[in-house]
Amino acid sequence: MVGYDANDSMTHSQKLIVGCLSGVTTKFIVQPMDVIKIRSQLLRKPKKGFATYRVARRILWEEGFTAFWHGHCLGQLHSILAVSSQFYVYEVTTKIANSLVPRKFQPIENFVCGVLAGCVCTTLVIPLEVIRVRQILVKDQYKNLFHGAQTVYRYGGIRAFYEGLSASLLQMGPQVGIQFATFQFAQPILLNLLATPCAPGECKNNKQKLATLAIASSIAGSFSGFVAKSLTYPFDLAKRRLQIHTHRTNMKYKTPTQAQSLIRCTRLIDCLTIAFKREGLPGLYRGWAVTVYKAQLTSVAAFTSYELFCFAAREIYAAPN
After folding, report:
1. Which domain of life is it from (predicted)?
2. pLDDT band at 53, cuts 50/70/90?
């Protein structure tokens, strides 16, 4: 299971490697939805109904199929750091908390450890995230990691790499906390419901256990992703608009139509109040649908791949030489 277990045979270093593999798998699966999500959040005047479909269609028509993978290499680096640091910090903090906190407070412990994991992860990856968001908007202007970093620095200095940090911490801390706590609550229940009786000596090993683990992790991951993202979504919206504050259109580069008229803001409170004043409560949830689908897919991919890689690693290390 995710989190500290005194009987687990895996070390923290092995789980860090598993977290990296899980990050690569997760990003490969969710990258196209990430591109659509970011474009949807930054549009100035979206039309009503089927906005996600129109954004995707426009990207395909104007920029081609490969546009759904703009920023993917940088996204892989971002995902490796994000997923591995989340799981690693969560494993370490739950181990510490396990010896300090009574078991009856475990749900609170899971939430607090998740918040810490989310804050550490956010602080590590936000410079990459700023570059990646802009690369998704105008790929030619932010060609790769180094060119993108130079461009971001030229437009806004060192502080530009941390645009949206306040919104990121307020979003990712609680989001990861809710996600881990919900997953830790739901997965054991599902494992018990899906478990099938077996004869003594036949319960270890095997494909049946692996399939049960995969199904339980997928359902729990999807549910935890939906709950966590829905509760923290307005901060995610604000974060994206803060992250393009110092971006400047350069006529040397081809700028897609959807990146020509963007909503920007300089302060978190302004992002939230302007969105609410212009469109009411729906304005705080612009792009919510595709974001929730993406969050569910991310959560399913991250938790399930992490659990399955851990399962495979334990089987390998337990195998006789």
Report:
1. Eukaryota
2. confident
